[in-house]
Queue: 2 jobs
Job 1
Amino acid sequence: MAKKDLLVSLKNVGVERDGKWLVRGVDFEVRRGEIVTLIGPNGSGKSTSVKCALGVIDPTEGQVNRATDLVVSYVPQKFNLDWTLPLSVKRLMNLTAHHSHADIEEALEQVGIAHLADAEVSHLSGGELQRAQLARAMLRKPDLLVLDEPVQGVDFQGEVALYELIAHMRDHHNCGVLLISHDLHVVMAATDTVICMNGHVCCRGAPKQVAQSAEYQQLFGVRRSEALAIYDHQHDHTHLPDGRVKHADGTICEDCDHSHGAHDHKEHDHA
Ligand SMILES: Nc1ncnc2c1ncn2[C@@H]1O[C@H](COP(=O)(O)OP(=O)(O)OP(=O)(O)O)[C@@H](O)[C@H]1O
């Protein structure tokens, strides 16, 4: 796999635990310069798929390929920190690796919190903390940046700004980005591919430019609406009440995949 091109790919990946498939039939890839977003409800297998992509867990079936010497920065969903310990933003940057003062300054500058270098991490707002984590992730100069729910604890405006920032990081560092979000409605316009999960890959596609609806533009402003995209959530199949699946071409099968009869959908529903 050429490092400059394909960073990671999953082919028909499945993870089984205690006789139950947590995810199955997961296929996606992330290339340098590309932003791929996994969306889906809680428990739909987004984190499990990302763990496979990163090699944290081995898939029970299927294949995962990573570029040689791939440098990954992972920003987790939860930031476990002892909030009683004094820790400045600057020190947070050097918590697990040593970076020069100049590099730290530049990283904080890039995420717009250079003025908070000496601030206590426990005093940061949700958005500022996300930016600090992003700065810390970028200091590793990753080929692949992985962000789990990057907008948690951030208000809508902050969310838009954070997505814009992630796209900027992608452009500036020419890395690939893998995002996890449970939000089905708001994904950034810069996302190249949205993978919608529900125990398997339901559907995928490029997010459309935000709906040109007057209400939306009124609510978020034209600039905001330009920065956002609504993923047009069209499934290519419908789950019938009796458990069978009707495909877009009208054929009715026992499962979602025309060509893949072994897929078991009893573990989840598509409501
Ligand atoms: N090691 C494990 N053993 C058994 N079940 C697990 C294990 N890890 C995850 N699961 C289950 O697998 C399912 C998928 O979990 P996963 O964390 O991948 O979902 P997710 O889409 O990332 O969810 P969320 O949006 O809530 O973070 C869940 O039902 C979870 O309880």
Job 2
Amino acid sequence: MAKSVTGGTKEQSLSWGVFRRFVPYLWPEHEPAIRRRVVLALALVLVAKATTLLMPFAYKAAIDRMAPGLQPGVSLAVALVVAYAAARFGGVLFDNVRNTVFERVGQDATQRLATHVFRHLHDLSLRFHLERRTGAVTKVIERGTKSIDVMLYFLLFNIGPTVIELTAVAVIFWVKFGFGMVAATFLMVATYIVFTRKVTDWRNHLRERMNDLDTGAVAKAVDSLLNYETVKYFSAEDREAARYEKAARAYADAAVRSENSLAWLNIGQSFITNLMMAGAMGYTVWGWSKGRFTPGDVVLVNTLLAQLFRPLDMLGMVYRTIRQGLIDMAAMFELVDQKAEVVDVPSAQPLIVSEGRVKFDNVRFGYEANRPILKGVSFLVPGGKTLAIVGPSGAGKSTIARLLFRFYDVTGGSISIDGQDIGRVQQRTLRENIGIVPQDTVLFNDTIGYNIAYGREGATPEEVEAAARGAAIHDFVAAQPDDYKTQVGERGLKLSGGEKQRVAIARTLLKDPPILILDEATSALDSRTEAEIQRTLRDVSAQRTVIVIAHRLSTIVDADEIVVLNDGRVAERGNHASLLRQNGLYAEMWARQAAEAEMEEA
Ligand SMILES: Nc1ncnc2c1ncn2[C@@H]1O[C@H](COP(=O)(O)OP(=O)(O)OP(=O)(O)O)[C@@H](O)[C@H]1O
């Protein structure tokens, strides 16, 4: 996702845009304690710099005391040397106190930003999540939020103080050694910066490539592990390993090239700074020989420049980190800027369910513009009644459930509940009123108890157990050594399909919604458990509106109405008996399934 940014103005506007966006995290409005820490940290930066600038003067004075021909002043020279050491210590002390004070600010900003992005990701549409690889998205967030902390640190505590120090050194040089020395210093710093920037830009290209390859390798590994079972079915371990190795090797090659390029940067930088050091010290030594400067002045120049070079030594890394940080943060803000596809209209009201009457009126929809899935579907489920939707695979049955949940907006027609268009009510209240037992249940990697209790926030253990009994899973849970604390594994893989389905039923029972969708809810169960659950589901269905999506027609013979969906249209409708009389698609499906059942029994 990381974009390479080229061109000065574009880069500046990008940097400015990103800076503007993270200032509120650094200077949060309702957090006076954080703001106080920022101010204190900045004050400590100034104190530390002042201390470091005093140090070379103490050193110089001590050396001058030792010059031949001067009055011996041993005790003063000792005091000055001690002051020099104290100033050195002071610099380190203040810097570290500053780091301690600022740590909370950086961590706090990172945490707030990460939470903001996380919340936003849940607001984005299903389409976004199906199209993006989860591994790649989490990597973008991880890099983006981490970079805010590092960037703040470098900007405030490296670039800022270096600018202050450079200004102070320039003033001192001007006063003591004349304008030539100032000009030489600025020329050196300018050459240093230009060189560092050029080499770092080149290195950045190498790094970006390395990052892309890293993201690719991680995504491949995640995808491969998520498909663990499929890999085994096809004995494709070697194929998977080869694919991963290829990605990892490409990353390793790019990483070697990127890391080796550092040597060029270090060598060039060292050449520039040491040229300056030699020139400045040579000049002061020459001045001393002419009686214009003292030996202490040589020491002063040496110490001031050595101090100035220390943060400059890190400039390449700082520039690269800030630039990379900007790219990472821009990628993250790009995620934040992703508009949610399904949004509440400004005047959205809460959905109020009275009877639970669900109406699809000439609904048209396609996941992609050029491939319609529903081509004008209409049906009405009166409150408290059960509608079954049947039809061939891929006819659009589950799509109807997704549209009722408003994971997507319809492209034509409308869906309403008790006369309220679902596109005009608050999504949260819409989803609160609908429960679903989906075709493929995915569970949280936590305990069975957690997964059932997910159905209703604040549910008591007794309520969880009652729901589990209702879904015929309690006995299974009770037989586990860890009871409701049994871990279900990633995506619930430690449970069988039927057990997962029963957990899904239990949590929906706990939610107790007025409208219920059962999408092949009992397809993964054996016939004995299915009969047991069917009874429960019938009881549950009695008091609410239910839409049942089913393949096995024997499970829906009692439905008040059955809609046969074919090729995106309602091909037939009626109850079981009337549909059999029509002798159409439904009757054909029924006959086929009856024959299959007979063959199984035989
Ligand atoms: N996210 C998606 N993007 C693009 N096409 C999709 C998406 N989800 C489903 N489809 C397509 O839409 C069509 C209808 O899918 P849907 O899941 O509603 O079928 P279904 O009738 O429930 O089938 P089944 O009985 O096999 O579950 C299918 O052809 C499917 O490939």
